Amino acid sequence: MSLRAHSTGLALGVMVGLGAGGVRTSAQATFTADIASPVAVRGEARAEREALVLRLIRHWPRRSRRVAVAVMEKYGPPHMITHKSLLWIGNSPWKATVVYRAGAFGAARGKRRRALRQVIAYRVPAGKSSELERLGMGLAADSVQEELAAENDGEAENFLALNLADQVAVSGLSVDRAKDLFARTRSLEASGKKSPLTSGLVFASRASFGP
Fold first, then answer.
1. If you compute the radius of gyration of the chain from its CA atoms, what whole number of angstroms results?
2. Which residues contact 67 (CB under 8 A, 6 or more apart)?
3. 113 within 8 A of 122, measured Cβ to Cβ
4. Is the pTM of this model over 0.90?
5. In the chain, which ranges are E strands?
6. Using CA atoms, how far apart are residues 143 and 98, in angstroms rounded to an integer?
7. Residue 55, helix vs strand vs coil
């Protein structure tokens, strides 16, 4: 199954089908694997679409509702929603964004799924995949799709994880040093101190965005 964003005037939705023209990302593959009956988010105005999403997620746990609302405030309503996932496609700088209902577990990993997965187009340099795997930080590289994803409980953490991954892959930062910086920067962020590494991607010239 492939997903393709589609808009007509103020209406916004997602077409689901088998057409070769659809754009597929690892986040979309995860999203479609989680659902049986996806619902396209449509409406005559942004406020109407947002109200629909808020009604559909009102029974989600607080952590995931908070993340969903924050993402929607920044990027607008999602293109698609189910009882446990929201999907945005091409919400730059992201190739795709998925918010998960809390309490879901990754079957393969046997641990709690984080609330927010975000994907960029990124070609991992040769020989660096094993180092990125050792980083943790919710990172997942897809060499076939040429994507790099981060899955944490907020966008700031995802920016941080991806920025540090790039420094390991390109700039020679050690895995141990990157892990230490991740923990220290998260702690500082929690205390209200901001870092450029949590505010956006600092390596935009090496990644291509959009579906």
1. 17
2. 99, 115, 116, 153, 154
3. no
4. no
5. 2-8, 11-17, 39-40, 80-81, 85-89, 96-100, 105-106, 111-112, 116-121, 139-142, 147-152
6. 20
7. helix
Per-residue pLDDT of 144-196, as tens digits, reads: 888 999 999 999 999 999 999 999 999 989 999 999 999 999 998 888 888 99
Q: Strands (DSSP E) along 47-201, which ranges?
A: 80-81, 85-89, 96-100, 105-106, 111-112, 116-121, 139-142, 147-152
Instruction: Say which residue the tokens 């930062």 belong to.
Output: 173
Is 146 in contact with 122 (CB distance < 8 Å)? Answer: yes
Under 8 Å between Cβ of 165 and 139: yes
In single-letter form, the type of residue at position 4 comes to R
Question: CA 18 → CA 4, 22, 33, distances in Å?
Answer: 10, 8, 15
d(CA 62, CA 203): 33
Other beta carbons within 10 Å of 171: 9
The total number of residues shown for the chain amounts to 211
Give the pLDDT band of residue 5 (cuts 50, 70, 90). very low
